[in-house]
Design goal:
29 strands, 4-stranded mixed sheet, 44% helix
C-alpha cells in the first residue's frame, strides 16, 4: 500500500479514534471468559481543561490498558470526572462576579443550575481532550461523582457510618477559609514560613503593680483570651500559678494556668490561651474546662465579642491593637520572627482556626485494617518508598472534618426538627421521628469532595447494588496516580474499600512523578511556564507527546519537561514512518509470500530476529514492573539503531540487486520485525502504529486488538548476536577511521582487514558485501598477512587490524598543514593544563573531583596529540 512522503499526524489521529469507537474496541465485557483487568481513572475536576500533568497520568494508564487488552485480558478502564466542590464553586463564583452578581443573589437553586451548566461545558472538554490523547476508556461507563447512582452510594455510606458511631456532629475547632467560607481538612491547608513579628505584651496582675509578659504573633486574638499559660516545670512562674491577671483592652479577669504544652523557650515562657482561635489552646480548654470566646467571624472580621473593634478586618484590627498597647505602655517589645502559617490550598487565603459546629468521621478504627493490607503486601506500592509516607500519616491519623459550608456537592443527609431531633437517613424522612412534625429542614452543608472520591472504585460500579460489573471488576487491578494525593485519595479509598467493598479497592498503586518545567520549577500560570496539552499535541503530534512523557516517567521521580524534548521524539516517529515507507516500497505489487525457511536465513536475519524477540521479552517484563521509561527506551534504541541504522541498511543491497530467494527472505524478515515493533509500540504511540500497521501486510481489523508480541525463545541466537556485535564494531571503527582522517564521505576507499584468527577472517569474508556497502568501499582485502608499512590509516577492532590506503585519497600537503595547525592548538591547551596542574595552590585548594577532571582532560589532550603525530609521520612519508 502507498504511504504519504511526509509524517502528518493531524491527518489520521481523529480518523483512527473514531474507528476504534465505532468498532467498540474499548468496551469491557463482563460475560467474557478472559481474565479481567480493571483501572478506574483518577477523575479530573470539572474546573477547567486538562494540563500536562493529567496527560502524563492518563498516558501511563493508557499504556497499561492497551498492553493488557492486546495481551488477551478483558479490560475495563472506567472513566469519569469529579464535581470538585470547593474548586468548582470558586471558579463559578468568579464567573458570576464578572457578570456583576453573586451566588447569594441567585439563591441556592439558581446557583446550582449555573454550576450544572459549567459541568456540562467542561466535562465535554475533558472527554474531548482525553480522546485527543488516545485514552482507550470504556466511554459507555462514564461516571460523574454527582450522578444519582453515586449519590446514593454516598448517602448509604454516610448513614451506615453514622449509625455505627463513626460519623458524629460536634462543636470543634477547625481550619476555616474566610474566602471560601468553609471548613477545611488538615490536608487542604498548605503550611509555609513567613517573616512576621513577635509582640511582647504586658498583662497586669490583679491588685498588684506587676505584670506578666506574654509573647504572641497574633495580637488581634488576645481579645478572646481566657487564660495565660506557663509550663508547670518553669520555676520563673511557680509562685504566680492560680493568680489572676487583667486582660489588656478588654479588662477581663483571667487565670494563670499551668500546662505541659507550653514551651518555656518560646518568648518569655508565658503564652496567651485563646481556645476559639488556636488548636493547642482549644485542647487545653478541653482539659481544663476553659470558656470559649469567638472574636473572629467566618469572613475573617472581628465580631461583637471584639468590642470596639467589631467589623474590622483581622489584620486591620491587629494594627490598631498594637497602636493601642503602645499608647497604654503595655507593649514592651516587637521582634522580627519567622513562623509558619496555613493557607487554603484552593485560594491561598490565610486560614483562621475557628470553633464551629461540623460533621466529623472517626478515622482510627478505619485506619487499622488499611495499614495491615499495605503492610502485608495485599496492596503493593510502586515505588515502595511511598509506604513509609503512608504509614506515618495513617498511624498518626486524626478525625476528619467532612462537612463543607458550600452549595455545590453532596448535601449531608441529615434533617432537623424544631423539637431538636436530628434524623440521618438515605431518603428524606416524611416527618419527625419524635414529634411527627412534617416541617423538617435539611442540613445546609455538603460533604468534602474527597468523601465521595473515596468511594470511587466501588460506587462507580453501582454499589450498594451487587451489579455484574461490581462482582467482576472489584477489586480493581491497578491504580495509577500522583504521589501528592496519597492521603487525600489513596488512603481514604483503601479505608472505604475495605469497609464497604469487602476487599482492597486495588491490588497495586503506581505513583507517577509530577511534571515541572525544564529548570525543575513547579508549573504555574503566574510564572508563565505552564505547558498547554492541546497545543503540544497539535505541534508535535499526540504520539510524540505520549512517548516523551513515557520515556521520562521514572517511578516516583519528578519530571523536568521542556516542550523541545518532544521535537526529538517527533523525529523518532518520523524515523518509524520512513522505515515503513522503505519496507512498503520494497514489497512487490500484488499478493506476496512473506515466509521463510530457517535454513535460508543469513547472519543479519538471525541476528535481527533474535534481537527483536529479546526486545519483546524485555518490553513485556519492564511494563509488568511499571518501568514505562525503560520499555520506551528499549523500543527507541531498537527501532532507531538496530532496525533502521543497521538491519535496513544491511539488507538494502539484497533488496535492490539480490536474487529472488534472498529478496523474499529479506522482505519476510523486514515485515515480521516491523509488525512486531509496531505492536510493541502501539500502547505508547497508538495513532501512528495503527496508521502504519494498516498499510503493511497484517491479520485482523485493528492493531489495538491485535495480539501483543510474546517472545519466541527458539529465535534467540546468542552466536548470531555475538558475531553481529563484532561485525558492527568493525564497521563502526572503519567509519570513524574515515572521519578521523578527513576522508570525504562520498569518496570510495579500499580496505585491508587482517586477523590471525580463522573465525574472524571467515566472519569478515562471509559479510564482505555488508562491509563494503556500509563503509563505502570498492575493494576489501581480507588477509592473515601483516599489514604493509605504507601510507595507511590504521585501527584495531575486535580482533581485527584495519588499514585504509590513503595514497590518492587525500591531499597530503593540505592534510599535513591541517594536522600541524591542530598540533599547535593542542600544544597551547596542553601548556595551559601543565601550568594549572603544576600550581600547588590549585592542587591543594580545589575540590578533588575538579582536580581529577583537569587531569583527565590533560590525559585526553596528550592522547589526541599522540594520534595526530602518528598521522603526521605517515603523511610526511607519503609526501616524499
Amino acid at each position: 500500500m502507498e504511504i504519504e512522503k511526509e509524517y502528518l499526524p493531524e491527518k489520521f489521529e481523529k480518523k483512527w479514534y473514531s474507528f476504534w469507537i465505532e468498532k467498540e474496541f474499548f468496551k469491557a465485557d463482563p460475560l467474557s471468559e478472559r481474565e479481567p483487568f480493571c483501572i478506574v481513572i483518577p477523575p479530573p475536576n470539572i474546573t477547567g481543561t486538562l494540563h500536562v500533568g493529567h496527560a502524563l497520568n492518563y498516558t501511563l494508564q493508557d499504556i497499561v490498558v492497551r498492553w493488557k487488552r492486546m495481551s488477551g485480558y478483558d479490560v475495563l478502564w472506567l472513566p469519569g470526572y469529579d464535581h470538585a466542590g470547593i474548586a468548582t464553586q470558586i471558579v463559578v463564583e468568579r464567573e458570576l462576579q464578572k457578570e456583576g452578581t453573586a451566588r447569594q443573589m441567585l439563591g441556592r437553586q439558581k446557583f446550582e443550575e449555573r454550576v450544572w451548566e459549567w459541568k456540562k461545558q467542561y466535562s465535554e472538554k475533558i472527554i474531548e481532550t482525553l480522546k485527543r490523547l488516545g485514552s482507550s476508556c470504556d466511554w459507555s461507563r462514564t461516571r460523574f461523582t454527582l450522578d444519582p447512582m453515586l449519590s446514593r452510594a454516598v448517602r448509604e455510606v454516610f448513614v451506615r457510618l453514622y449509625r455505627e458511631g463513626l460519623i458524629y456532629r460536634d462543636k470543634y475547632i477547625v481550619n476555616w477559609c474566610p474566602r471560601c467560607k468553609t471548613a477545611l481538612s488538615d490536608l487542604e491547608v498548605v503550611h509555609g514560613e513567613i517573616q512576621g513579628k513577635l509582640y511582647y505584651i504586658l498583662y497586669p496582675l490583679k491588685g498588684k503593680k506587676a505584670h506578666v509578659t506574654v509573647a504572641t504573633t497574633r495580637p488581634e486574638t488576645m481579645l478572646g483570651d481566657t487564660a495565660v499559660a506557663v509550663n508547670p516545670s518553669d520555676k520563673r512562674y511557680e509562685k504566680l500559678l492560680g493568680q489572676t491577671i487583667i486582660l489588656p483592652i478588654m479588662e477581663r479577669e483571667i487565670p494563670i494556668i499551668a500546662d505541659h504544652f507550653v514551651d518555656p523557650e518560646f518568648g518569655t515562657g508565658a503564652v496567651k490561651v485563646t481556645p476559639a482561635h488556636d488548636f493547642n489552646d482549644f485542647a487545653v480548654s478541653k482539659r481544663l474546662k476553659l470558656p470559649l470566646i469567638v472574636v473572629i467571624d467566618e469572613e475573617g472580621k472581628m465580631n461583637e465579642n471584639a468590642g470596639e473593634f467589631k467589623s474590622l478586618d483581622r489584620y486591620k484590627c491587629r494594627k490598631l491593637i498594637v497602636e493601642r498597647l503602645r499608647r497604654e505602655k503595655l507593649l514592651s517589645d516587637v521582634k522580627n520572627y519567622t513562623y509558619s502559617i496555613g493557607k487554603c490550598q484552593r485560594c491561598n487565603t490565610v486560614v483562621e482556626p475557628l470553633v464551629s459546629t461540623q460533621w466529623f468521621m472517626k478515622m482510627e478504627t478505619l485506619a487499622a485494617p488499611a495499614i495491615t493490607v499495605v503492610d502485608e503486601g495485599r496492596i503493593r506500592f510502586i515505588p515502595d518508598i511511598w509506604k513509609k509516607t503512608y504509614f506515618e500519616w495513617m498511624r498518626n491519623i486524626h478525625d476528619w472534618c467532612i462537612s463543607r459550608q458550600l452549595w455545590w456537592g453532596h448535601r449531608i443527609p441529615a434533617w432537623y426538627c424544631s423539637c431538636g431531633e436530628i434524623m440521618v437517613d438515605v431518603k428524606e424522612p416524611a416527618a419527625c421521628s419524635r414529634c411527627e412534625n412534617k416541617e423538617l429542614k435539611q442540613d445546609e452543608d455538603v460533604l468534602d469532595t474527597w468523601f465521595s472520591s473515596a468511594l470511587w472504585p466501588f460506587s462507580a460500579m453501582g454499589w450498594p447494588e451487587q451489579t455484574t460489573d461490581l462482582k467482576r471488576y472489584y477489586p480493581t487491578t491497578t491504580l495509577i496516580t500522583g504521589f501528592d494525593i496519597i492521603f487525600f485519595w489513596v488512603a481514604r479509598m483503601i479505608m472505604m474499600g475495605l469497609k464497604f467493598g469487602g476487599d482492597v479497592p486495588f491490588r497495586g498503586v503506581y505513583y507517577n512523578g509530577l511534571i515541572r518545567d525544564e529548570k525543575g520549577h513547579k508549573m504555574s500560570k503566574s510564572k508563565g511556564n505552564v505547558i498547554d496539552t492541546e497545543e503540544i499535541m497539535l505541534q508535535y503530534g499526540t504520539d510524540a507527546v505520549r512517548f516523551t512523557l513515557a520515556i521520562l516517567a521514572a517511578p516516583g521521580m519528578d519530571i523536568p519537561l521542556a516542550p523541545e524534548r518532544m521535537a526529538g521524539y517527533r523525529a523518532f516517529a518520523n524515523k518509524l514512518w520512513n522505515a515503513t515507507r522503505f519496507v512498503l516500497g520494497s514489497l512487490p505489487e500484488g499478493s506476496i509470500k512473506l515466509t521463510y525457511d530457517l535454513k535460508d536465513l543469513i547472519l543479519v536475519d538471525r541476528w535481527i530476529l533474535s534481537a527483536v524477540n529479546k526486545l519483546v521479552g524485555d518490553v513485556n517484563r519492564t511494563l509488568g514492573s511499571y518501568r514505562f521509561d525503560q520499555a520506551a527506551n528499549q523500543l527507541y534504541h531498537f527501532l532507531w539503531h538496530q532496525f533502521c541504522d543497521w538491519y535496513i541498511e544491511l539488507v538494502k543491497p539484497s533488496l535492490l540487486m539480490g536474487d529472488e530467494k534472498r529478496k523474499e527472505v529479506s522482505m519476510a524478515v523486514l515485515v515480521e520485525v516491523l509488525d512486531k515493533v509496531l505492536r510493541l509500540l502501539h500502547p505508547f504511540m497508538p495513532f501512528l502504529t495503527e496508521e502504519l500497521w494498516q498499510k503493511i501486510p497484517h491479520q485482523g481489523d485493528s492493531i489495538t486488538v491485535a495480539p501483543y508480541p510474546v517472545a519466541q525463545e527458539e529465535c534467540f541466537d546468542e552466536k548470531a548476536e555475538g558475531e553481529m556485535a563484532i561485525l558492527m564494531e568493525l564497521i563502526t571503527r572503519i567509519r570513524n577511521l574515515r572521519a578521523e582522517n578527513n576522508i570525504d564521505p562520498s569518496r570510495k576507499i579500499e580496505l585491508i582487514i587482517r586477523s590471525d584468527k580463522r573465525k574472524r577472517l571467515k566472519l569478515a569474508a562471509d559479510n564482505e558485501a555488508h562491509i563494503m556497502n556500509l563503509t563505502r568501499s570498492t575493494k576489501v582485502q581480507i588477509t592473515e598477512d601483516p599489514l604493509p608499512e605504507e601510507f595507511h590509516a590504521r585501527c584495531v577492532a575486535s580482533g581485527f587490524e584495519v588499514a585504509i590506503p590513503l595514497k590518492g585519497i587525500i591531499d597530503t600537503s593540505r592534510e599535513k598543514n591541517r594536522i600541524e595547525r591542530e598540533i599547535t592548538k593542542l600544544d597551547k591547551e596542553i601548556g595551559n593544563k601543565n601550568k594549572k596542574l603544576s600550581n600547588e595552590a590549585f592542587l591543594s585548594n580545589a575540590p578533588k573531583d575538579i582536580v581529577e577532571k583537569e587531569k583527565q582532560i590533560h590525559r585526553e589532550l596528550l592522547e589526541k596529540k599522540k594520534k595526530l603525530l602518528k598521522n603526521l609521520t605517515l603523511i610526511t612519508k607519503a609526501g616524499k
